[in-house]
């Protein structure tokens, strides 16, 4: 469970101070599927970065299962990210010179999993996104939707508790978008994940049980 209390994140832009997040308080329970919408510059990516322990708040707290991410040292935070949180991005962020199989295996390197186990788990993860027959392909040989499936397999191969997705369908046509949302929704149900996704797309947001809107650094729960 995430518990966020009076979280503020400011950035200095020249002489100007930008409040990317302002006094945000929020709770996200285990197993929720939540979308985050809002205008450009509203603070969506900043919030996702905080949830992923990729950046630290200026003030306030953000805890995951009772541990304050803001107060953790870098080593512990890296471990939490490696073991507990999966990330999916708009641009897939696959390594172009590695095959689908190798891309997925990379996610297990920081956790110290043996080579044999990495290979077996990557095969299973690719099968879970219906890409078992494309394991030897390079990203450039795959469609956008297939690349996103590889990225989802890479995020889930470590069995994370939380999956954070930043515009996961932003680069896909409508049909592929629907396939990817179907896939994410299926994995969410099957694996009991907490799935939090940032999206500009109201069609995607309408499919999530809980919808948050963030504008000018402030969060509103549209389903409360
Ligand atoms: N590293 C940074 N340095 C300075 N300002 C930043 C930085 N990151 C974000 N900001 C500012 O914080 C505010 C919130 O940005 P954020 O990227 O979270 O918005 P967003 O809702 O994700 O926008 P978009 O939909 O365009 O991705 C913006 O005013 C942005 O300019």
UniProtKB/TrEMBL annotation:
It comes from the Bacteria. The keyword Transport applies. Residues 2-224 form the ABC transporter domain. The keyword Transport applies. InterPro entries: AAA+_ATPase (IPR003593), ABC_transporter-like_ATP-bd (IPR003439), ABC_transporter-like_CS (IPR017871), ABC_transpr_LolD-like (IPR015854), MacB-like_ATP-bd (IPR017911), P-loop_NTPase (IPR027417). Gene3D superfamilies: P-loop containing nucleotide triphosphate hydrolases. Coiled coil: none annotated. One of its GO terms (molecular function) is transmembrane transporter activity. Keywords: ATP-binding, Nucleotide-binding, Transport. CDD domains: ABC_MJ0796_LolCDE_FtsE (cd03255). GO terms for cellular component: membrane protein complex; plasma membrane. This is ABC transporter ATP-binding protein.
């Amino acid at each position: 469970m995430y518990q966020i209390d009076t979280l503020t994140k400011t950035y200095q832009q020249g002489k100007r101070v930008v409040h990317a997040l302002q006094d945000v308080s929020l709770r996200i329970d285990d197993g929720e599927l939540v979308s985050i919408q809002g205008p450009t510059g509203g603070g969506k990516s900043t919030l996702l970065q905080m949830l992923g322990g990729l950046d630290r708040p200026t003030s306030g707290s953000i805890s995951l299962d009772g541990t304050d991410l803001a107060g953790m040292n870098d080593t512990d935070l890296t471990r939490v990210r490696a073991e507990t949180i999966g990330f999916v991005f708009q641009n897939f962020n696959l390594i172009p010179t590695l095959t689908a199989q190798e891309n997925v295996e990379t996610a297990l390197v920081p956790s110290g999993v043996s080579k044999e186990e990495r290979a077996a788990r990557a095969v299973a993860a690719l099968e879970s996104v219906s890409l078992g027959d494309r394991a030897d392909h390079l990203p450039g040989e795959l469609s956008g939707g297939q690349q996103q499936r590889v990225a989802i397999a890479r995020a889930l191969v470590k069995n994370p508790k939380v999956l954070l997705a930043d515009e996961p369908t932003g680069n896909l046509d409508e049909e592929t978008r629907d396939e990817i949302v179907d896939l994410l929704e299926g994995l969410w149900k099957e694996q009991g994940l907490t799935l939090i996704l940032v999206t500009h797309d109201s069609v995607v947001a309408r499919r999530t049980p809980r919808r948050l809107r963030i504008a000018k650094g402030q969060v509103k729960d549209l389903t409360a």
